[in-house]
Amino acid sequence: MDIRVLGCSGGLSDTQGSTCIQIGDYALIDAGTGLSSLSIEAMRKIRYIVLTHSHMDHIAALPLFLSNMFDDVEHRVQVFAQAHTIETLKTNIFNDNIWPDFTLLPTPEAPIVEFIEITPGDTFTLASPEKENAQIHVFAVDHTVPTVGVSVRMQNQHFVFSADTMEGPTLDNALSSLTKLAPIDTFMLECSFTNNKRELAVRTKHMTPAMVANTLSRMPELPKKLWVSHLKPSSGNALVAEVLALARKFENEINVVLLQESSIR
């Protein structure tokens, strides 16, 4: 499995970009500012983008990324997203006021981007030009807007990305089903706020370290690795310390990594 985290910050930071995960050299999950770490040459190899939801930190680089595609019109980028995300992008971003409508450019007959609607529970294949295809399964998670998590299976490994979510039955049921599909090798789970901001986490439907621990305790089978991501930079060292304490708590059961950037190869 070839997965690289280009960005996973929960906000604006001088050390890392916001959420963007690269699959091989041909696909992305989300298009946050981490996408800007790719060279133009690498960007032009991207064929597919799976968007988890419409929030800015997950779509911020998409408009500028697509504007780099005009010199390579041999392929169009396929963007997989829920109806709410597609409609939000078309209404608020690709509206010829904020940014051009790239579904009509360079021509309506041959645009550089195609939006493909997905719904939770869908399974589809991202075809690799050279290597093994990626089997994608999207599942519902509980966030403030319609959001999907993403399961990626390739080369006998299983990577699961929670996207933005809070703890509870929706996530628990998804993880139970995914574990039955195939044991989870790496689980990338968000953790945005410190434990003393639980009320804020609940209102914004994000996670705290205590919520992460609760979620792990309810999983029928623990993953081999847990990548903790989406930390809010404004939370500073306090949140880092709580995540490190979480890692120590589970050190005999699971490899917990405080994710800055990482890869599976």
TrEMBL record:
User: What is the superkingdom listed in this entry's lineage?
Assistant: Bacteria
Q: Name one GO biological process term.
A: cAMP catabolic process
Q: Which CDD domains match?
A: class_II_PDE_MBL-fold
- Residues forming the Metallo-beta-lactamase domain are 17-193
Q: Which Gene3D superfamilies match?
A: Ribonuclease Z/Hydroxyacylglutathione hydrolase-like (3.60.15.10)
Q: Check the record and name the InterPro entries matching this protein.
A: Metallo-B-lactamas (IPR001279), Pdiesterase2 (IPR000396), RibonucZ/Hydroxyglut_hydro (IPR036866)
Write one Gene Ontology MF term: 3',5'-cyclic-AMP phosphodiesterase activity
Protein's name in the database: 3',5'-cyclic-nucleotide phosphodiesterase
Species per Swiss-Prot/TrEMBL record = Aliidiomarina shirensis
What lineage is this protein's organism placed in? Bacteria, Pseudomonadati, Pseudomonadota, Gammaproteobacteria, Alteromonadales
